[in-house]
Amino acid sequence: MELCSVFLPTILLLLLSVLYSAILFFKRSAPPKATESLVLKSYPVIGNLPHFIKNGRRLLEWTTDLIASSPTGTVTVAPIVFTANPTNVEHVARTNFQNYPKGGEILSTFHDFLGRGIFNSNGEEWLLQRKAASFEFNTKSLRAFVLDKVRHETVDRLIPLLKRAGRSGEVLDLQDVLERFAFDNICSLVFGEDPKCLALESEDGERFYHAFHEATELSIERAKQPFSLIWKLSKWLDLESERRLRESMETVHGLVEKYVRSRRKLSREGGGSDFLSRFAADGAHSDEFIRDILISFVLAGRDTTPTALTWFFWILSSKPEVVEKIREEIRVIRSQRRNYDSEVLTLDELREMGYLHAALSESMRIYPPVPLRPCESRREDELPDGTRVRKGWTVMYSTYAMGRAEGIWGQDCGEFRPERWMEDGVFQPASPFRYTVFHAGPRMCLGKDMAYIQMKAVAASILEGFEVEVVENRGKHHLSMTMRMEGGLPVRIKERNIS
Ligand code: HEM
Q1: Which of 481, 392, 484, 485 is nearest to 120 (CA)?
Q2: pLDDT tens digit sequence for 76-127
Q3: Is 106 in the pocket of ligand 1 (CB under 6 A)?
Q4: How far apart (Å, rounded) are the C-alpha atoms in residues 156 and 154?
């Protein structure tokens, strides 16, 4: 009898809470009205965790499907709002920029690696770096310096390497080749030091390359944990992945600090054209802050352009007609020269290559190097499409979903068609709020022009001189700091006869 009086109310309470949960669950799963954003049903107590656990491995595809089924192009999976709606992007990236800084969780996850560098800071600290870097990025001397480094890396390393592979018939991982190219390039630009990774000529350079790669991958692994407590606890216990992260960061920080110290000395005697010399010369910042600034720049240049080019070559392997059009564009530009030689194209010639520019832009539309961009809402807010955002929630726009949205690109959005960017033979840029590949608003990518110069120079050199045959058709992505190709891109190279 006594047992009954204890158990009955408990069971009744349990039944009621299950019933209440079921009502909530089904109420929320009702389809949205024609003008409302989709809100995913969440479970009591555990919220949306099961959705993230179930779909975490296919986050891009899952969120793209959800967004496509929402009338506004926005879906709430609290505490995250995923959107592919250009008016929402404009709202968070520009109009209401102050309310949407980088989130505290993200900053703390990447702090050990990136410190207070431009990618990992907000407010005054970010603004200071942004102003200094914007100035440097806009100097003519920097552009000339970039092209000079690209030319050296292409003519002295990339082309000889491809010729050797062509002769021997060996299979190359093009993604790895492009990543090594980009790392040499960005380190020369940032530190004035050439790690010679493409030529495999420097032990220090190789150590730096691997440590940087490992630190990037392991920091991303931290970010993928459902709760930051997990990596914080692992760090405290010095478990395997955190130990490896600590060791790789020690290598990266040690080498960069060494460069900073030596360049400080040199800058007093005149300095060079690289970023470090320019920052070191003003003497206003600590070595540690300069180290953080530089690491962010290496990260920006190391992953993005090779990822973009890897997908570009993968797409081109099934588009011979596009390859022919690019080759024709190069041939016409070359024919306008007085002296035909096989040197890399000049800055003006690269700028003239509108069709190649369009083909690269089109490839990044479908395979954006940075597919998602999160920010955190400081205050409660309402997005232009009516979606409610609570204080502390993340608003994440999906460049991946936007590139595949019929509402933005039309019914042929799934087709690779560089012509969509051309009008009367001239490249037509898209609004950065619709084409968010380089982000938009005050934090828009600083290296966009530099990235196009590099990508066009490399793509033109390879396509002009070589046939690239994809040996194994992989085409799956792996979400790291950028959307890399899982397992790389194995290719066979054949030298072309262009005389
Ligand atoms: C295809 C190549 C590239 C793509 C698609 C790309 C894309 C992006 C994106 C999406 C952002 C915003 C990231 C965020 O705020 O979380 C960004 C920021 C940035 N990018 Fe790029 N990027 C590329 C190449 C480069 C290169 C070569 C550099 C030069 C080193 C560079 C420098 C930067 C910098 C400094 C920022 C930070 C801007 C800020 O926070 O104010 N990017 N880029």
Answers
A1: 481
A2: 999 999 999 999 999 999 999 999 999 999 999 999 999 999 999 999 999 9
A3: no
A4: 6
For residues 296 and 302, give the distance between their C-alpha atoms in angstroms, rounded to a whole number.
10
369 lines ligand 1 (CB under 6 A): yes
Give the CATH H-level superfamily of domain 78-495.
Cytochrome P450 (1.10.630.10)
Q: What is the pLDDT of residue 339?
A: 60
For residue 73, give the nearest of 456, 397, 471, 339 by alpha carbon: 397
With a 6 Å cutoff on the Cβ, whether 183 touches ligand 1 is no
Q: Quick one: three-class SS letters along 304-316?
A: HHHHHHHHHHHHH
451 lines ligand 1 (CB under 6 A): yes
- Residue 340: per-residue pLDDT: 55
Nearest-angstrom CA–CA distance, 292 and 365: 30
Rounded Cα distance, 274 and 250, in Å? 23
394-398 vs 80-83, strand pairing mode: parallel
pLDDT one-digit tens code per residue, 387-428: 999 999 999 999 999 999 999 999 999 999 999 999 999 999
DSSP string, 381-404: EE-TTS-EE-TT-EEEEEHHHHHT
CA of 230 to the centre of ligand 1 (A): 29
How many Å apart are CA 46 and CA 21, to the nearest integer?
12
Please indicate whether residue 392 or residue 472 has the higher confidence score (pLDDT). Answer: 392
Residue located nearest, by CA, to atom 11 of ligand 1: 445
Q: How far apart are CA 72 and CA 82, in angstroms?
A: 11
Query: What does the alpha-carbon distance between residue 496 and residue 499 come to, in Å, rounded to a whole number?
Result: 9
Where do the structural domains in the chain lie, given as residue ranges?
Answer: 78-495
Rounded distance between C-alpha atoms, residue 327 and residue 325, angstroms: 5
From 303, 367, 370, 445, mutation site for ligand 1 pocket: most ligand atoms within 8 A of C-beta: 445
Is any atom of ligand 1 closer than 6 Å to the C-beta of 130?
yes
Whether 315 and 230 have beta carbons less than 8 Å apart is answered as no
Specify whether the backbone of 248 is left (phi greater than 0), alpha (psi in -120 to 50) or beta.
alpha
Phi/psi for 102 (5° steps) reads -70, 140
Ligand 1: atom nearest CA of 374 is 16
* Binding site membership of 92 for ligand 1 (Cβ less than 6 Å): no
How would residue 285 be classed by pLDDT, with cut points 50, 70 and 90?
A: confident
**pLDDT per residue as tens digits for the range 128-175:** 999 988 888 887 778 888 888 999 999 999 999 999 999 999 999 999
How far is residue 68's CA from residue 407's CA, in Å, rounded to a whole number?
Answer: 10
d(CA 497, CA 499): 6
Residue 290 in this model has a pLDDT that exceeds 80: yes
